[in-house]
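We both want to read discrete structure tokens more fluently, so let's practise on a single case. Would you write everything just below, so we can both look at the same thing?
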Amino acid sequence: MAALFYPPQSSAMGRLSLSLRLRYALAIMSDNTSRPPQKSEEIVKMMQLRGATMVAYANFEYFLARLLYEASRLASYKNLDLSFSENADRRVLRLKSVLATDGPLSQYSADLSPSIDAVLEAAEFRNFAAHGVMIHSIEDGTSMISSLMYKMFKGGNLAEGKMRFTMDEYLHHTQMLTASVKQFVSIVRRIWADQGYSKLGSDQL
């Protein structure tokens, strides 16, 4: 039997410890008494990878916003639209317009732009992790993850999208995203050190 897991929505859920959240999730389908221990362990691993994916991308989005905030305070970029957006793609476009404009941040374009693009390669993977239903199954002894979500495709067609991985493939994608975000953040920290901006609030992350 496949096990389905939706992203936690309840604020009360957020106050639970990690162990309690995992036990809660494992009990959702009410078949935990018959689920083999190995499969339960695989589901916990799937949930941890999903969480790692979302955390990595959240760091990326935070630093995009923080860079734009600092740029908005500089005279060099006063003619650019640096208004806040919750959409990561819009943040990227605005930051790239900053990097393409002569000013104190343009010197970092050669390093920062490729690192941004590397993270964006995982945008669809992250979207399915953040907004989709995840289904775990074991097929011919292989641990499989399917992620489903409704998407608007070209032509205005609403349809169900699907991504499917072995557990090892999902782990690989999560590791690639995490490495790309770490590279992006390392460049951001260099910018902060060079430019003497106020201390990053995410130093504790």
